[in-house]
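ARCHIVE RECORD
Type: protein–small molecule complex
Small molecule: zinc ion
Source of inputs: curated submission
Record status: active
Notes field left blank by submitter.
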Amino acid sequence: MKIKRINKSNGMITLFLVCALVFGCSVHTPQWAFDNPYAEVDWQTYQAYKANLHTHTTMSDGKGTPAEVIDRYARLKYAILSLTDHDTLGPERDRDHPEQHRTTWPWQTFGRDPDSLGMIAIEGNEISRRDHIGSFFNDYGNPNIDSEQEALDEIGRRNGLAILFHPGRYNKSVEWYVDLFRSYPHLIGFEIYNQGDRYSGDRTTWDAILKDLAGERLVWGFSNDDMHNPETQLGRNWNVLLLPDFSAEQVRLAMENGVFFYVYSVDGHQGEAPPEIRRIESDPRKGVIRLSAHGHERIDWIVEGEIVHQGDRVQLSKIDTANGTIRAVVYGADDKSLIGTQPIRFQRLSD
Ligand SMILES: [Zn+2]
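STRUCTURE (tokenized, with ligand):
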């Protein structure tokens, strides 16, 4: 009897191990795979920094001088700023000499030193002859282009990064965007909030792009002031970059890898502060994503443009999709101001 019982027990263990190896059904085997842009963040040591990446001055059609604009953002505790004047406009633009004055750069030209302000300045431009494209970490600014692809090719040749600005202004299909994101790895994302919220349909387009690209790559959502008037358009939109140390190299890595949140503060810095995200972690073993926030009223989880869950913890087995991307939006007490995460890709490995 005793031997028989042991045999039965061994048989059970064997069956269990085979099951675990073949089907991954052990409790210790991950049930889900994640591609989580925040996976590497050390929440104890990383610091959060405010960034606006779309800003105009009198060097194109903005109303504030570069020095005034820099000072205003510095006073509001922005740590990262890119002056992205249109390459097609402005007193310094000389079409016969496109190699000159490509960007509003360096800040020292305008009497400001990023180091002494405790800021990181990013060289940037809004390539504006076709659909407007934010160009960063390079000095490109030639207005004589015939296509968006030509601009993206040149930004790539200069080892820059690119973001599509206010896509809702143009009449492009989701397929057109998907093709661009497939072709250009240095095209890192898409403005989903611009100058307050001028083009709310851009979030719908973003979700459609994420769905079509699932399994290939992720595309990051940005919120930018697109500030032309310092009195009325400054300080409503920003991005919160999570950095292990405060350097231009780390800013670039966070932008490339999606290690940031986007913020829309309806009343800017006059109103109540928008909520904060303190932590977001995915657990592949349990198929759970947990988000810790502060100053919030509600957390929505969005898959393919639909709210699939509300609360600080989402159990993926309880939603209807086995493979896709999920993102969270955290709303403040006014139910309007918000902070959002980048998409996290998930895939169920077993039933
Ligand atoms: Zn602009």
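CURATOR ANNOTATION: The chain is about 25% helix and 30% strand.
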